[in-house]
Specification:
Blueprint: H1 25-29, H2 37-50, H3 78-88, H4 100-112
Helix pairs in contact: 3-4
């Protein structure tokens, strides 16, 4: 077997070091906005309403700074959860708590996927059928 050696010495351009001084000002000044002024003000207003304030034209607040789909009426994403759960615990296929649509998808996936759920696949990108 012929082995070809290659030079793996890093080039000078790859010797850059990230320090506080070389860090972009945009990164230094960024803020985690979901904990910023707007949600803090929302909490203040919520407390004021709870204390009896009538200065607002509404009676409650709903925090949506990090998303809150169920709080605004979106249903739970049960299909994906049912499928994943029963793929990991096959006896759930016998449960009346899982929809028939989910059971149909689980059976299809079980017929196409050859290795157990959670195990490594032959291809590092995952099961071909799922991809």
């Amino acid at each position: 077997m012929n082995v070809r050696r290659i030079n793996v010495e890093p080039h000078a351009e790859y010797h850059k070091v990230l320090t506080k001084e070389t860090l972009s000002p945009n990164v230094k000044e960024c803020q985690y906005a979901v904990r910023g002024a707007i949600p803090l003000r929302g909490e203040e207003i919520k407390k004021m309403i709870a204390a009896g304030s009538t200065e607002f034209e509404f009676e409650k607040t709903l925090p949506c700074n990090i998303g809150n789909p169920q709080a605004v009426g979106q249903g739970f994403l049960t299909f994906n959860r049912e499928v994943l759960s029963a793929m990991m615990l096959p006896k759930l296929l016998d449960s009346s708590q899982i929809s028939e649509d989910s059971k149909e998808r689980i059976r299809l996936l079980n017929s196409k996927i050859t290795s157990p759920m959670g195990a490594y696949t032959a291809n590092s990108k995952g099961h071909m059928y799922v991809r």
